[in-house]
Amino acid sequence: MKTLTHSIFLAFTLLSLMACSHTNNSPSSVTINIDKGWQFSESDKNEWLDAEVPGCIHTDLLNHDLIKDPFYRLNEHDLQWIDKKDWVYQTTFNIDKYTFNKERISLNFAGLDTYADVYLNNELILKADNMFRGWTVDCKKYIKEGDNKLRIYFHSPIKVGLDIYDNYPYVVQSSANDLAKIGQVPGEKWVSPHVRKAPYQFGWDWGPRLVTSGIWEPITLKAWNTARLDNIHTNQLDISETVALLNSVFEIEAQTSENAELSIFVNNEELSTKKVQLQEGLHTYKVDFEIENPKRWWSNGLGDAHLYKVKGQLKTKAGIETFEHTLGLRTIELVREDDETGRSFYFKLNGQPVFMKGANYIPNDVFLDRVSPEKYEHIIKSAADCHFNMLRVWGGGIYEKEIFYALCDKYGILVWQDFMFACNMYPGHPEFLESVKHEAEYNVRRLRNHPSIALWCGNNEILAAWFGWGWKEDNEKKQPDGAKAMWQAYKDIFLDVLPKAVQAHDPIKQYWASSPQAEDTIRTNKIDGDEHDWRIWFQDVPFITYHDGAARFVSEYGFQSFPELKTVKKYTIPEDYDINSEVMKSHQRSFIGNGAIKRYMDNYYRNPKDFESFLYVGLLLQAEGIRTGIEGHRINMPTTMGSLYWQLNDVWPVASWSSIDYFGNWKALQYFTRKAFAPIIAVPDTKTDDLLVYSVSDNFEDKTGHLELTILDFEGKELWSNTNNITVKANTSNIIFKKSLQKLLKGINTSNAVLSTKLFIDNQLTYSTTSYFKEAKDLSLPQPQVSSSVKKVDKGYEITVSTDKLAKNLYLSYNEAEGWYSDNYFDLLPGQSKTIVFETKEIIEDFNSKLLIRTLDDTY
Ligand code: BMA
Q1: How far is CA 752 from CA 104, 225, 364, 857, in A?
Q2: Ligand 1 pocket, mutate which of 420, 538, 646 (most atoms under 8 A from CB)
Q3: Is the dihedral of CA 33, 37, 40, 41 positive or negative?
Q4: Pocket flag, ligand 1, residue 355 (CB < 6 Å)
Q5: Which of 122, 201, 481, 769 has the greatest CB tally within 10 Å of its CB?
Q6: Rounded alpha-carbon distances, angstroms, from residue 425 to 174, 201, 465, 491, 716
Q7: Position 527 pLDDT exceeds 90
């Protein structure tokens, strides 16, 4: 007995000593993920079923077979009742004595979608109203030791939206993207501008109308003593060859004034430690440190995207708290300088002007919980494999999840980050502005440490819509007070609240209020800001107009296609195989979609003989069009310094501007981007009086080599050839060949002629391409004999194809297996052969006989 008392006394003394000293290395807080045991029910039914958290109501209903696949045929239209209902989610979680006894306990909600009343043990602890921000709620006084009940009541976003709409003094202008009609919203009212929730879920011209509710990001409980490390922001003060000077700003909430030790570890090595006296409440503390022989973070194609792992540590008598983030050492700047063409708009990375190559990115699914880490990696890696160095996270989607930015950091993809405002005017009452302020601060603070973040942009196309789409005039006529209020709200949000959030929390980055925009003016001006070039597609002008030049940075341009048959099969039955069938039309959301595709197709291609041929020709049409765009922008370097086409990916299977379909299949365009965005390219222009060949280089040094041009007929006979020595100038475009086309083509039947361009640097073939002197519809394409052989390899199958005559846009497909072709839709010159890898996990018996090979001449 005596010994026991003695040991208890000893243990107690030891514990107290540990608590007082600064050598306590155990964690000072407890974090619990509240992701288990969740159930959901319609609010007035009390019928509880298991739920996934994070998740959303649509996927929960789907998991229980209570609804049909929303993407299949016309099912979307029958599921509009879901967003008119209220839904309740609940779970019970256990708190042990140790956790319960901590001085502070908070619940963190990283994402609630959207109007959510949160009850802890039947006490209302939070009323959330913005999907885009996190919430932290102190809840020590409501927590019990043992079981605790968390219940979240989600109000229908449509019912709440309607209530706001009906009581608002004016109608907030939205665009036709809000598919209120499909949504069966009474009066087809546009509620979306009022609801701080992913705009694209209300419908878009490439998306379904499926408005979710639910817990879309994790919920965690944190219990702590003494002090909590909330956040760290690392600033890069100066980077030289030998040393990088940095500081990390620790944000710490302390219970009382305390002694503490702050340390910075880089790649697990302690680089700096500082003793501080913490102040009671939330305060910031700076720790300076240096990294010797720093390695820079470069964007894709220019060097290594080198990342360091930074760990900040707070040590108090209660123990240690850490916060980690990746660090990329680089400077990034948007350069806006007057020049002879107008005003520059380009990014300087580590002091070097860099042409931005990439696309606009939208969410990967309408149901966000379905996007697996593998899907994220596939999309970002596809971009990197095709030499992209920038993605624009477009303002009608979401501020992406952490994994997206981590992958962009890793693959060297810079991010043009829009705030989530697109193609709507917005309300401007104080509560709305306050909500936007929290949303902006939350996301800037969440994302600012990522080296990939290059620019913060206020919104998508609102400025252009107000002044260019007639919104201003319409509203001034119909509701003058409303017009005034909407413009005031524009100024409050995009010229005040958002830039202030950037200035306060990420001052080193630039803010651009709207895309597109020309500085200080209210309309886009080709020689000033960024431009959305929709003359192609919306105004029926030919693809070659992309070569016009003068734009400084093209942040949007695009052309649609339907996906390949394999994807179409997943949402249709054979009787739907007509682009004018009800099902296909429902998976075509652009009001001019089918007509525009048809008109352009008629200009460039012969009429496809059947549905399958139509899909294939449509994919080529899009690929050729956007290839012309990319090349057009790049040959206008350095006046033009960016080319981001619309759009990389899809949220469901649909006809759209994407280059990768919903299921991750590369469309023809994605293959074409890999060529057109290559670091060094040669661009033959056969559509002017001269045959012009440009070289374009992203390289920081001049290169020398030679250019080999050959004109062949489709049977392989050489009709003309020329080789000349060239210099590919560094980081710009220049003409490396020029000759009158009339002279050159004398005696050549251009319906039966292909130009092969090969660029050699130091005798290494660096780039090759084929071009024609007539549109595809005017070519006398032969019927080539394409033979193939297949070999099983580790990754899947190696396919070797060869042809006797020109095989134009050779396309390999096999609809029954999932996989990825290393190349597709390419021209194979007479007598050539090529080996492609089909990466697949599936074993396909007798693959060679099942493989479908199609060339353009098969389509008519
Ligand atoms: C751009 C985008 C989207 C739209 C696309 C195609 O304007 O910003 O709003 O989906 O065009 O119309």
Answers
A1: 79, 80, 43, 13
A2: 646
A3: negative
A4: no
A5: 201
A6: 6, 17, 9, 11, 58
A7: no
SS3 286: strand
User: Rounded to whole angstroms, how far apart are CA atoms 91 and 224?
Assistant: 23
Is 90 exceeded by the pLDDT of residue 849?
A: yes
Q: pLDDT (tens digit, 9 = 90+) per residue, 421-446? A: 999 999 999 999 999 999 999 999 99
576 lines ligand 1 (CB under 6 A): no
Give just the sign of the alpha carbon dihedral 734, 740, 744, 749. positive
528: confidence class by pLDDT, cuts 50, 70, 90: confident
Confidence class of residue 21 from pLDDT cuts 50, 70 and 90? very low
Please measure the distance between the N-terminal and C-terminal CA atoms of the chain and give it in whole angstroms. Answer: 98
Say whether pLDDT at 558 is over 70: yes
DSSP sequence for 78-142: HTTTGGGS-EEEEEEEEE-HHHHTSSEEEEEES-EESSEEEEETTEEEEEE-BTTS-EEEE-TTT
- Concatenating the DSSP letter of every residue in 811-844 gives EEE-TTS--EESS-SEEE-TT-EEEEEEE-SS--
767 closest CA partner among 672, 680, 670: 680
Task: Determine the residue type at 833.
Answer: S
Q: How far is the CA of 670 from the centre of ligand 1 (A)?
A: 19
CA–CA gap between residue 551 and residue 487 (Å, rounded) = 27
Token code pair at residue 569: 């099969």
Sheet with strand 733-740: strands edge to edge: 680-685, 690-697, 733-740
| Largest Cα–Cα separation, the chain | 114
Nearest to 841 by CA among 769, 808, 793, 799: 793
What's the gap in Å between 557 CA and the centre of ligand 1? 9
460 touches ligand 1 (CB under 6 Å) = yes
Confidence of residue 2 (pLDDT cuts 50, 70, 90): very low
Q: Measured from the CB, is residue 557 less than 6 Å from ligand 1?
A: no
Strand partners, 416: 392, 455
Measured from the CB, is residue 646 less than 6 Å from ligand 1? yes
Q: What is the rounded average pLDDT of the residues 128-143? A: 97
Amino acid type, 237: L
pLDDT tens across 153-204, in order?
A: 999 999 999 999 999 999 999 998 999 999 999 999 999 999 999 999 999 9
Residues 650-684 pLDDT 10s: 999 999 999 999 999 999 999 999 999 999 999 99
User: What average pLDDT score do residues 103-108 get?
Assistant: 97
Is there an atom of ligand 1 within 6 Å of 650 CB? no
pLDDT exceeds cutoff 50 at 4: no
Q: Where are the beta strands (DSSP E) in 133-257?
A: 135-138, 146-154, 214-215, 219-224, 227-239, 243-254
Three-class SS of residue 496? helix
- Per-residue DSSP letter, 750: G
Encoded amino acid at 137, one letter: V
Burial of 15 (0-12, 13-18, 19+ CB in 10 A): exposed
- Our answer on whether the CB atom of 556 is closer than 6 Å to any ligand 1 atom is yes
Q: What pLDDT was estimated at residue 438?
A: 98
Task: Convert the pLDDT of each residue in 750-769 to its tens digit.
Answer: 999 999 999 999 999 999 99
Tokens of 430: 């104080």
Q: Tell how far the Cα of 371 is from the centroid of ligand 1, in angstroms.
A: 22
The per-residue b/e assignment along 58-84, b for 16 or more CB within 10 angstroms, e otherwise, is: bbbbbeeeebeebbebeebeebbebbb
Residue 25, pLDDT score: 85
Structure tokens given for 157: 């976003």
Average pLDDT (77-86) is 98
Backbone angles phi, psi at 432, to 5 degrees: -65, -45
What is the band of 17 on the pLDDT scale with cuts at 50, 70, 90?
A: very low
